Structures
1.
Amino acid sequence: MAPPKPGELTFVAPRGAKKPPRHLADLSPAERKEAVAATGEKPFRAKQLSQHYFARFTQDPEQWTDIPAGARQKLADELLPELMSVVRHVSCDEDTTRKTLWRLHDGTLVESVLMRYPDRVTMCISSQAGCGMNCPFCATGQAGLDRNLSTAEIVHQIVDGVRALRDGEVPGGPANLSNIVFMGMGEPLANYKRVLGSIRRLTDPTPDGLGLSQRGITVSTVGLVPAMLRFADEGLKCRLAVSLHAPDDELRDTLVPVNTRWKVREVLDAAWEYAAKSGRRISIEYALIRDINDQAWRADLLGRLLKGKRVHVNLIPLNPTPGSKWTASRPEDEQEFVRALRAHGVPTTVRDTRGQEIDGACGQLAASEPTE
């Protein structure tokens, strides 16, 4: 096994775990041609398969009328195996928010959420099954890490969402996907190689990929500094979101345990490096937790850390998990927090929380599903 590159965390799969099957979306266009040729078919069939998957969203070989009937199932088996199946969809907000629970090939459960607003459609996707960051207020973090998702398992969440929008499965008529946020289950930069591969697939021109804009993609991190610096050198135009949750190391060591390794100022310095190289504004994610991190003096400290930087603060009223001692801030404390940040000239908004009645917090739906 090759040693990890700087910023890449290693992950040892549980004994007996099966790797996800190889899929078209795991491969670059050149690798797809090689894989098709290895089946005995002409390499140009790779472009046809890409067209079916990324543009037509047709995975049924019987519909691939531009491919000889005798080759369809063989190509499907080799390059378009079933990666994941829907366990259930749950909806709220008049069906404009739809959460999907997926079962992967090995029985692992992950989640994605599609949110339709009047002016945009956003999908929140998972990059890992579970999470190893151990943040105590997060349902996924408390469940622990099962495994990394493959590039194709990440991509397929979006492909299915784009298909659902095209087919009018979400009320409001056919629509296009506006934004993708890597804020579902997992720490994206702890699955660096596959997350980067998924971004390439999502933004490669059709039919090699979905042809989406990098500027519509946000990648979240709790602050894996070496990976953040490596990400800054990729030449991407994605937005980086830092899940800060506390401006002082004493509290953040508890709320975001990775802070014991990389402190607040190191994390922010890496974020400013990404902003400088990408030209994109940094998003600071801050879950407001009652009587824990929502004091006015912490808002003032955060404002002083961020003042004058290319940044936007996204305050998130905590979506509590069942039985948790953590809950959302009082409205008056939230308002004071916003006022204090804006007094420093820091652009600040409060996230429109959705999905509380459908186990909307990341990891809640998977946690509520009986194991097989």
Note: The CA atoms of residues 204 and 211 lie 5 Å apart.
2.
Amino acid sequence: MEDSITNEKEINLEPSRSDYVASAAKSALGMVPFAGSLLSEIAGSVIPNQRIERIVKFAESLQRKLEILEESVIRSNLTNENFTDLVEESLIQASKSLSDDRRDYISSLVVNSISSGDIEYFESKHLLRILGEINDIEVIWLRAYLDPCYGRDDDFTKKHEHILEPIAAHMGSSQSEFDKSTLQKSYKEHLTALGLLEKEYDMDTSSRGVKLKTKQFKIAPLGRLLLRELGFKSELLS
């Protein structure tokens, strides 16, 4: 009985795993000048151990963007609960991010929430949650619809042509082509369901009665707003 009590005390005296995680997160973030210290206090409680490296990369991206702002302006927002709530959500999403592009989107949204007077912090958090519901491929499709002539031979299309190349499956198509066509359609339907794209319709009178047939997709105002807050630059966003 006495031994079991002793063992229990010994176990309780050992640092918990979360203590090690918090310490490692703070240490890694401490290497990033300002943004690292800004994030380190929140990081220990919300970041799983294996995702710390992603958060450090996010902090580096955030640091580059914060350099255009006055430090006093940033610190003045630290007492705003809506801002700290936004930062915590950004940390959670950044810890799950698999690409530098995604981390850049998140850091742009956070910085724009500080520098822009048009969007409130709770509205930025809403946009961040929407971003969390779409993948990197869907972001590319959304950006493609920003320009009605997205199929033209520009740098963006060239960079992402393996994603944006239309796939129209037909009776002679392979299963792989059918699958890819189905996925392309699902990306657009998902963006539409979130209010980021809109459908334009044609009247179909080929059968009995009149039916609406989807003609094409176009970007919605919410889609433009999200792209602007994610840091995409275009005269079409203003």
Note: Residues 1-22 have pLDDT under 50 and may be disordered.
